[in-house]
Write a structure and sequence with these properties.
Strand content: 35-45%
Low-confidence stretches: none
Structural class: alpha+beta
Number of strands: 11
Order of helices and strands: HEEEHEEEEEEEE
Radius of gyration: 29 Å
Number of helices: 2
Shape: elongated
Length: 181
C-alpha cells in the first residue's frame, strides 16, 4: 500500500504543480495583454489631440508696428474648445535691425499692441464655420479638425522682412507647432 500511497501523493503534487504553473502562465500572459491594452489606449488618447499646423504667414509693416496674419489648421483628430484655444501661447521671433527679439502675445478681441485675435474661420478655401460655430465674443464653439483659423497679431515693433522670422503656437494641451518664414 505504501507504494500506491506514494504514487497518489506524487500524482497530487504533480497535479498541484501543474495547476500552479498554468495559473502563473495565464497571469503572465494576461498581464502582458493588459499592458498592451493600456499602451494602445494611451497611444489613442495622446494621438487624438488637436494638432495645429501653421500653413502660412505674412507681415504688413507700418511706421512703428507690424500686422502678422497666420493661417493655422487643426490637423488632429479632435476639436478644441475656443475658450481653451484662447489660452494658447503665441510667440513671434523676429529681427528688428540687428536685434533678434521674441515676443509672447496675449489674446485680445480688439487687437491692441502685442496681442492676437481670431480674424476668421476657413474650411478649405471658403470662409465660414457651420459645425460648432466659433464665437470669440462669447468664447463658444469648437475648432474642429481641418478647420483653418486666420489669426491676426499686432506687434508694436517692425519686423525686418529681409531676415527670417518665426512663430510658435503652444496649445493648452501641450501640443506645439512652429513655422519659419
Amino acid at each position: 500500500m505504501s507504494g500506491f500511497g506514494g504514487l497518489v501523493s506524487a500524482s497530487v503534487i504533480i497535479l498541484v504543480f501543474t495547476v500552479a504553473l498554468i495559473f502563473l502562465v495565464n497571469s503572465v500572459l494576461l498581464g502582458a495583454q493588459l499592458y498592451d491594452w493600456k499602451t494602445s489606449m494611451l497611444k489613442s488618447v495622446t494621438s487624438s489631440k488637436p494638432k495645429p499646423h501653421i500653413d502660412s504667414g505674412i507681415t504688413y509693416s507700418y511706421d512703428s508696428s507690424t500686422l502678422v496674419k497666420l493661417n493655422v489648421t487643426n490637423i488632429g483628430d479632435k476639436g478644441l474648445r475656443i475658450k481653451d484655444f484662447l489660452k494658447s501661447d503665441l510667440i513671434i521671433v523676429y529681427h528688428n535691425g540687428t536685434v533678434r527679439k521674441a515676443v509672447k502675445l496675449e489674446y485680445n478681441d480688439s487687437l491692441s499692441p502685442n496681442t492676437w485675435k481670431i480674424a476668421r474661420v476657413l474650411i478649405g478655401n471658403r470662409e465660414g464655420d457651420f459645425l460648432n460655430p466659433i464665437n470669440t465674443a462669447s468664447k463658444s464653439g469648437i475648432w474642429d479638425p481641418y478647420e483653418t483659423l486666420e489669426l491676426e497679431a499686432w506687434l508694436d515693433d517692425v519686423i525686418d522682412t529681409g531676415k527670417s522670422w518665426g512663430v510658435v503656437l503652444a496649445l493648452p494641451n501641450g501640443v506645439v507647432s512652429t513655422a519659419e518664414f
